[in-house]
């Protein structure tokens, strides 16, 4: 069976019938199999070298199997400017996932953010 989901989790096509859309994906009502959509936007983590909050954010992501791009804004002025433009502030860590931004956060706030937005590794 092939299932194609759109960016919002909507069913684009399927080789099987009788699907019901949910907020997290699709449920095949005939066999109760759940097809979850995955977050396709890459994770970009703006960090500052030597920042303990940034180290904790990287550890949290790595420990849970998330793939991300870390950008040190102290060594990359353009990235620093982008972080400020996106988040409206100068503190790290700052995480960008598509159009979602989480700025100046703790591991607990990161856990809430990925749960709330259904971002999986």
Q: Care to describe what's here?
A:
Helix content is 27%, strand content 31%. The strands form 3 sheets. It has a 4-stranded mixed β-sheet, with helices on both faces. Strands 3-4-5 form a 3-stranded antiparallel β-sheet, with no helix packed on it. The protein has a two-stranded antiparallel sheet with strand order 1-2. The chain has 121 residues and is α+β, with helices and mostly antiparallel strands. The protein folds into 2 domains: 3-36, no CATH class; 43-116, Glutaredoxin, CATH 3.40.30.10. It is globular, with a radius of gyration of 18 Å. Strand 8 (94-97) and strand 9 (100-103) form a beta hairpin.
Which secondary structure elements does this structure contain, and how are they paired or packed?
Layout lengths: L2 E3 L5 E4 L4 E4 L2 E4 L4 E4 L6 E5 L4 H12 L4 E5 L4 H11 L6 E4 L2 E4 L3 H10 L5
Parallel strand pairs: 6-7
Antiparallel strand pairs: 1-2, 3-4, 4-5, 6-8, 8-9
Keyword list:
9 strands, 121 residues, Glutaredoxin, alpha+beta
In short:
This protein has 121 residues and is an alpha+beta fold. The chain has helices at 52-63, 77-87, 107-116; strands at 3-5, 11-14, 19-22, 25-28, 33-36, 43-47, 68-72, 94-97, 100-103.
What distance separates the N and C termini? 24 Å
Which radius of gyration do the C-alpha atoms yield? Answer: 18 Å
CATH names the topology of the largest domain as Glutaredoxin
Overall tally of structural domains: 2
Instruction: Describe the global form.
Output: globular
- Content-based structural category: alpha+beta
- β-strand percent reads 25-35%
Poorly predicted parts: 1-39
Kindly state the percentage of residues in helix: 25-40%
The CATH class of the largest domain is Alpha Beta
Overall pLDDT metric: 78
Q: Give the full name of the CATH homologous superfamily of the largest domain.
A: Glutaredoxin
């Amino acid at each position: 069976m092939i299932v194609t989901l759109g960016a919002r989790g909507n069913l684009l096509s399927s080789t099987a019938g009788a699907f019901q859309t949910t907020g997290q994906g699709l449920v095949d009502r005939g066999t109760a199999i759940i097809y979850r959509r995955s977050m396709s936007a890459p994770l970009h983590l703006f960090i500052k070298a030597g920042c303990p909050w940034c180290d904790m954010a990287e550890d949290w992501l790595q420990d849970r199997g998330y793939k991300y791009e870390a950008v040190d804004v102290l060594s990359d002025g353009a990235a620093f400017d982008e972080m400020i433009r996106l988040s409206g502030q100068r503190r790290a860590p700052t995480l960008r996932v598509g159009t979602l931004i989480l700025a100046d956060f703790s591991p607990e706030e990161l856990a809430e953010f990925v749960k709330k937005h259904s971002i999986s590794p």
